[in-house]
Specification:
This protein is mostly beta strands and 711 residues long. The protein has seven domains: 31-128, Immunoglobulin-like (Sandwich); 133-221, Immunoglobulin-like (Sandwich), CATH 2.60.40; 225-317, Immunoglobulins (Immunoglobulin-like); 321-402, Immunoglobulin-like (Sandwich); 406-517, Carboxypeptidase-like, regulatory domain (Immunoglobulin-like); 521-615, Immunoglobulin-like, CATH 2.60.40; 620-710, Immunoglobulins (Immunoglobulin-like), CATH 2.60.40. The protein contains one helix and 64 strands. The strands form 16 sheets. Strands 1, 3, 4, 6, 7 and 8 form a six-stranded mixed β-sheet that branches. Strands 36, 37, 39, 40, 41 and 42 form a six-stranded antiparallel β-sheet that branches. Strands 12, 13, 15, 16 and 17 form a five-stranded antiparallel β-sheet that branches. The longest helix is centred in the N-terminal third of the chain and has 7 residues, at 5-11. It starts with a helix and ends with a strand.
């Protein structure tokens, strides 16, 4: 299987990614190169007339080379010669135009066509400019004078950069844009940002609709700003020179921070600070931030009110500094530990590792610190939130007890010749849902690889620390010629239920019998929509249960545009195969809702086996709201797990901004619901853990309402 992908599947470390396209300055080079290929074409306006003097760029995909540049001639023709073979993106900008357009008639690089160019070939790429409308307007200061600014247009949906221009000395500006909905950003005085309508964030600005041939007027006024200024001194009253100072909004609301540096007398000033409440921070020794006034805790920082045209004075004195000494011991035996590390949970620049049995940190600001202490010995769990109060001018010692766990060593060899084989392994706990929840650090299924861990031991994976309990081992070799397996009593298996069970007690150091890796086979096939018969792209195919919220390479393999997939590196055993995609029911081979009911797919060494599948929409729905005990709405997340296996039944769902959560497209089955809130509270519906939680029956085309009260 694809290595590293299984790791994210088992750890559910992958989260849905959001890519925001941003305006980027691109350095182009003239259209000269040393290859044998070429791209030529003509650029025309919306009416079909040639466009002269337009800029044209050709960007080679994946080569790392800068774009090559040319311009259209009087007939609208352009040409790039001497290109290397490869894939190219073509972009165009009319002389004096506001935006760059990509072939063919796309507005972003990501939406552009990839133009294949073979060695020695000449490829013709003609392009027609999109029809445009025009946004024209003025930007003035509050006193009516013209303001200076750089103007940029972004799509109202997705915030994709489209085009830009400047404000003229008389305060006027204009942008020619293709039809669509936009939001306009002003970089005022090249100092701070505001959006159309006098708004301070993208989300709060109203969309502006542009249609072909239209002219949309805007009259904008620079929002009120004030200043923050003051003097910073050291604990002894001397000026603190050359210190970085910043001001940021309380809630990270999208308004950029402001920055300054103290002068020789410790004085600083930040102008063009938009009105509202801010907090001010000072970068002290070790780059540890102290907030006004006299606190290391951002949540306790003073709220500094900024009003238009006024200076808010924020003087600050650095806290006195002391020395922090950190030692650690085994919680059971009391024996001192060495070579551990510690870091602060806030102001994380306070950190260090012990060369021997202690960490000594100088120049630590006086106050309360919360530390996480860990050791990479595979035997001791991390201790979180160890609290210590540092006193100025003194050495403060904290002795941290680290709880001992168990260690599981997994040696792996090739069955064919007995030579060592690098790979990865996970220990999945029996009798607890997979993945399982609990107090940190037990909320993940431990997973590591022989060539990741320290120390590296060829062909051997060390898993730990592990809680006392019973485990099963999954082995995933690096080489796709070798097959993954659940480790059985006498060899590999594809059935987790048949995997060997290993019972560990606290402090145990157990080595499993040598895992002999068999020659791999391959599962391949095609996934289509049951109703339409159309191929389905982006379906995750896996022989282990996927986790809620997986994305990207969290999936072992995904289906291509034509619905096909190839899953190599699978051991020669009978495997359940899972097919998952948001918007469809999560199902297993044989159309089963649960792994234990799946029809296995038998894999043979060195062979391909076909497993086609037809995905279903529909299914059941669970929806509801989050409330506190007083009935106030809360934000939270809900995940459904199969009531028998404890494996995820779908991607989780969120309740936010008074919108209920909705778990849709659930395959008919019994599930148990786990909920969580952003502040770390979590629980099970109807019970205190998975075992005691209430099973809920999901039925086709039925909606079940489950409201959640958080105490």
């Amino acid at each position: 299987m694809r290595k590293h992908a299984l790791r994210r599947s088992l750890l559910h470390a992958a989260m849905t990614a959001t890519i925001v396209a941003m305006a980027t300055a691109i350095t182009a080079v003239p259209a000269t190169a040393s290859g044998t290929s070429s791209i030529t074409g003509h650029l025309t306006d919306p009416a079909g007339a040639p466009v002269a003097g337009a800029s044209v760029w050709a960007t080679s995909i994946g080569s790392g080379s800068p774009p090559v540049f040319t311009q259209t001639d009087g007939a609208g023709a352009y040409s790039f010669g001497n290109l290397d073979a490869g894939s190219y993106v073509l972009s165009f900008r009319a002389a004096g135009g506001s935006f760059e357009q990509y072939a063919h008639q796309a507005l972003t690089f990501y939406a552009a066509d990839r133009i294949p160019v073979a060695a020695g070939a000449t490829v013709v790429v003609d392009e027609q400019l999109l029809a445009t409308g025009r946004i024209v307007g003025t930007l003035h200061n509050a006193d009516g004078s013209a303001a200076q600014a750089f103007v940029q247009a972004y799509t109202a949906e997705g915030q994709n950069y489209v085009g830009s221009g400047g404000v003229a000395p008389d305060g006027t500006f204009g942008l020619d844009l293709p039809p669509g909905d936009y939001k306009i950003q002003f970089y005022v005085r090249y100092s701070f940002y505001q959006w159309n309508g006098g708004k301070l964030t993208f989300d709060s600005a109203a969309p502006i609709q542009v249609t072909a041939g239209s002219t949309i007027p805007l009259a904008e006024t620079v929002v009120p700003t004030g200043s923050i200024a003051g003097r910073l001194t050291n604990a002894d009253g001397t000026p603190a020179a050359g210190v970085g100072v910043f001001a940021e909004r309380l809630e990270y609301d999208g308004i950029p921070s402001r920055n300054a540096t103290t002068d020789a007398d410790g004085r600083y000033r930040m102008d063009d600070v938009v009105t509202g409440d801010w907090i001010v921070g000072f970068s002290g020794p070790r780059w540890i931030t102290q907030y006004a006034h006299g606190t290391l805790d951002r949540a306790a920082a003073a709220h500094i009110a900024v009003t238009g045209g006024q200076v808010s004075t924020v003087d600050e004195q650095f806290l006195p500094r002391g020395t922090l000494r950190i030692i650690a011991h085994d919680a059971t035996s009391g024996a001192p530990l060495s070579h551990f590390c510690a870091y602060a949970t806030t102001n994380t620049n306070l950190s260090g590792c012990a060369d021997d049995t202690e960490i000594v940190l100088d120049d630590v600001s006086a106050g309360v610190w919360h530390l996480n202490v860990n050791i990479g010995d595979h035997q001791h769990f991390e201790e979180r939130d160890a609290t210590v109060t540092v006193v100025g001018g003194q050495t403060t010692t904290i002795d941290v007890a680290l709880r001992r766990g168990a260690t599981l060593t997994v040696p792996m060899v090739k069955r064919a010749d007995g030579s060592t084989a690098d790979g990865c392994a996970t220990a999945a706990r029996v009798g607890v849902q997979y993945p399982y929840f609990g107090d940190y650090p037990n909320f993940i299924t431990p997973y590591t690889c022989s060539d990741w861990q320290s120390p590296q031991i060829p062909g051997t994976v060390i898993l730990g620390p592990l809680d006392a309990g019973t485990y099963q081992v999954f082995a995933d070799p690096r080489d796709d010629a070798l097959g993954s397996q659940w480790v059985g009593a006498t060899g590999g298996t594809g059935d987790r239920g048949a995997a060997a069970q290993i019972t560990l007690v606290e402090g145990a150091q157990v080595t499993v019998p040598v895992v002999r890796l068999d020659q791999a086979g391959t599962i391949k096939g095609k996934v289509t929509d049951l109703t339409t018969g159309a191929p389905v792209q982006g379906v995750c195919v896996s022989v282990t249960a996927m986790t809620p919220g997986f994305s990207g390479d969290g999936c072992p393999v995904g289906t291509a545009d034509d619905g096909t997939y190839v899953l190599p590196g699978v051991g020669p055993y009978a495997w359940p195969v899972q097919f998952t995609k948001n918007g469809y029911q999560w199902r297993w081979s044989g159309n089963a809702a649960s792994r234990t009911d799946a029809t296995p797919v038998t894999v043979r060494a060195g062979k391909n086996v076909t497993a086609n599948y037809k995905l279903r929409t529909g299914g059941g729905t669970i929806t509801g709201t989050f409330h506190d005990a007083a009935g106030h709405r809360l934000d939270g997340g809900v995940t459904a797990y199969n009531a028998v296996t404890g494996e995820a039944a779908s991607i989780g769902a969120q309740a936010y901004d008074n919108v209920p959560y909705t778990l849709a497209n659930l395959a008919p089955q019994q599930v148990k619901l786990h909920w969580s809130t952003g502040d770390g509270r979590h629980g099970w519906i109807g019970g205190t853990d998975f075992a005691s939680a209430s099973p809920l029956q999901v039925k086709n085309n039925k909606t079940l309402t489950v409201n959640i009260t958080v105490s």
